[in-house]
Design a protein that fits this description.
CATH superfamily: Metal-dependent hydrolases
Number of strands: 8
Helix content: 40-55%
Largest sheet: 4 strands, parallel
Mean pLDDT: 97
Distance between the termini: 22 Å
Strand content: 5-15%
Low-confidence stretches: none
Strand order of the largest sheet: 1-2-3-4
């Protein structure tokens, strides 16, 4: 392998897909400084970036409120969205699904519809400018009431055919709250054929994933890494082609695994489960996709073919049209071949 910095610089050029990306946890220093001109960089480092090792997921999520507080007006939502696209453009992300909970952005008087429209319109403009294709996943949260979950899925239904909204998710503190308040919302999503993902198997064990699969029937699972504790569950994920949106650095950060070397992503991937690579929260976790790729190469001896395979896994499970998937697959393979002409991608593509 090339030296660390040279390899990282090269990895930034490769096309990337990111399906698990929280808008409200990805505010760069540059946009926070614009939104809060009086903030010292030291405060940004402590309030917006989580420690390298948190006590648990709940401890990690405490920092999310800092970003949410700065996303309460149309202008703020637009600025944060454009800032995220700048980050994506800097490392050649060609497709992203950006998720957030619209009901968290109403403190200054916005209506939920205004929140969704602001982000969707901003993404549309950013796509025109950068060429990066993107969709929006609206989240309900574990601590939300049943009514709030139903309100969120109806927002998805309202906008899924006339905006960039593409799907529905359940996020937040998996260990602290059961799924009971969200069953009706997901039943409604199933009845309407709305694409679904859900966070599971990160802060809780394989039973959480099984419950999520049974009650929500998602095509993807956010994280899902605790599936390694149950061979039968792993077989089901593989047989049913359930895609895992894996975020390795974040999983280590919230102390699901004590170190990167003990993360099971390599085992999951080599077991034939569909795996994609994600940052989760670019600011809270303080990582880029390129840096995540480099960790995988250095820790597990992954090669460019493995990275390509994970990107193709992700785009195959993206909540977008078949035409878009076909176009992006072709572009990704072509660019990998262009940037890595000496590598044989036949097995991976």
């Amino acid at each position: 392998m090339k030296n660390h910095q040279a390899e990282l610089s090269f990895l930034r050029k490769l096309p990337k897909v990111e399906l698990h990306l929280h808008l409200d946890c990805s505010l760069s220093w540059e946009v926070v400084k614009k939104l809060r001109p009086d903030i010292p960089q030291e405060d940004y480092s402590t309030d917006f970036i989580a420690p390298a090792k948190c006590r648990n997921l709940s401890d990690f999520l405490k920092r999310a409120s800092s970003g949410i507080e700065l996303m309460q007006t149309r202008e703020e939502l637009e600025m944060v969205t454009c800032d995220l696209f700048s980050q994506l453009e800097n490392e050649n992300v060609v497709y992203a699904e950006i998720r957030f909970a619209p009901l968290q952005h109403l403190k200054d008087g916005l209506q939920p519809e205004e929140v969704v429209e602001s982000v969707s319109n901003s993404i549309g403009l950013c796509t025109e400018k950068t060429g990066i294709k993107a969709g929006i996943i609206l989240c309900t949260l574990r601590h939300f009431s049943e009514d709030q979950s139903l309100q969120t899925i109806r927002l998805v239904e309202k906008y899924i055919d006339n905006s960039l909204v593409v799907g529905f998710d359940l996020a937040a503190d998996e260990a602290g709250y059961p799924i009971d308040n969200h069953k009706k919302a997901f039943e409604y999503a199933i009845s309407k054929g709305i694409p679904r993902t859900a966070h599971a198997g990160e802060a809780k064990g394989p039973e959480s994933i099984k419950e999520t699969l049974k009650c929500f029937a998602p095509s993807r699972i956010g994280h899902g890494v605790k599936s390694i504790e149950d061979p039968e569950l792993m077989k089901k994920l593989r047989d049913d082609n359930i895609h895992l949106e894996v975020c390795p650095t974040c999983n280590v950060q919230v102390d699901v695994f004590d170190s990167y070397s003990n993360h099971p992503i390599d085992y999951l991937y080599k077991s034939g489960i569909s795996v994609g690579i994600n940052t989760d929260a670019r600011t809270l976790t303080n990582i880029t996709l390129s840096e995540e790729y480099l960790k995988l190469m250095e820790e597990f001896d992954w090669n460019y073919g493995d990275l390509l395979k994970c990107n193709l896994n992700a785009i195959s499970h993206a909540f977008t049209s078949d035409n878009c998937k076909t176009h992006l697959k072709y572009k990704i393979i072509k660019d990998y071949q262009k940037f890595c002409p000496d590598f044989d991608f036949q097995v991976y593509a």
